[in-house]
Amino acid sequence: MNFFLQGLTMGIAYDAPIGLANLFVINAALTQTKRKSFLTALIIIIFDISLAFACFFGIGAIMKKFEWLQLVILLVGSLIVIYMGINLLRSQTTDISGEATPEMTVIKTITSAFVVIWFNPQAIIDGSMMLGAFQVTLPAYSYPIFITGVGIASILWFFILNAVVTKFKDKFNAKILRIINLICGAIIILYGGKLLLNFFTLLMH
């Protein structure tokens, strides 16, 4: 039970800081129907847990070993993230009801969520340092218990975040929602810009 609680608290610390995944879930909860926003949260959870598993078992070490892989992920990821942010800035919201929002297909949601989670090498490396370093302190038999706690934390965090935002989204009118979209879009573009800067920095070394 102790290892499970350690994994649970580590998982919350891993997911809680405001990042692309949280912004993605918040925006879906504000602009999509309850069913679609729930699906978005579920897809984010699946990719988030898969990344946590990969970090725990050492993908960060692989990225550090192969610099070309870092470069590819940085370049492609930064461009796609910037594109997503620009689309959010350009989106026009006249009504916050689900019927008034643009249709977001399951395929588009899956690909966008994949980019948000997996095309952020900084998150992969940070997650590897956080979870991978913790792995060293654990006995081998506790790995499944610990990583299960991390996975449960991801499920709880994103479902609760989605539920809270969905519950209170009716308090937002179209103007406020537009401002939120602009803020989220700007932050996402800044994330993408930071990734692109990291790409050029790594390329010049």
Automatic annotation (TrEMBL):
Keyword Protein biosynthesis in annotation: no
Gene Ontology cellular-component terms listed: plasma membrane
Subcellular location: Cell membrane
Chain ranges passing through the membrane: 12-31, 38-62, 68-86, 106-125, 145-164, 176-197
Major location (coarse): membrane
Pfam families for the chain: LysE
Keywords for the protein's UniProt record, in alphabetical order: Cell membrane, Membrane, Transmembrane, Transmembrane helix
Membrane topology: Multi-pass membrane protein
Entry GO MF terms: amino acid transmembrane transporter activity
Keyword Transmembrane helix: yes
Domain of life: Bacteria
The protein, known as: L-lysine permease
Protein source organism: Companilactobacillus nuruki
